[in-house]
Each structure stands twice: as C-alpha cells, then as structure tokens.
Write a structure and sequence with these properties.
single chain; about 70 residues; mainly alpha; Helix Hairpins; 3 helices; about 75% helix
Length: about 70
C-alpha cells in the first residue's frame, strides 16, 4: 500500500473488471493487515484505515454505475 491511492475520478476511468480486480486486491491486503495487527507485528498501523477508505472509494464508484 505504499503507492498513492487513486482519486475517485481516476477510479471512474477504470473498467468494471479492473475495478473488481482492484477491490479484491484491497480486501486481501486489508485481511493481511488485520492479521498482522492481531499478531502485534504491524509497524504501520495507519494503513488499516487508509485501505478501508480505498475500499469504500472503489465500492462507491461501483455503486454509482448501477
């Protein structure tokens, strides 16, 4: 999650398949961060809410298309 999070405008330019792929990747990343936080080995705790916001941003763009 070191890369800069895309803005909603950038996400709207993506296709449906790309958006779903990115959402799946983010959910795996969130799970990974949660496991590390539970183990106590997570150094960068600020990433948890950042990934959650990114997921919400992707879901919002997908919801707008319906």
């Amino acid at each position: 999650m070191a890369e800069k999070q895309p803005r909603a405008k950038d996400l709207r330019a993506l296709g449906e398949a790309d958006l779903k792929e990115q959402l799946a990747k983010l959910r795996r990343e969130l799970w990974h961060h949660r496991v590390k936080a539970k183990e106590g080995s997570m150094q960068q705790t600020h990433l948890l809410p950042a990934v959650k916001r990114h997921i919400a941003r992707c879901e919002t763009v997908m919801r707008e298309r319906r």
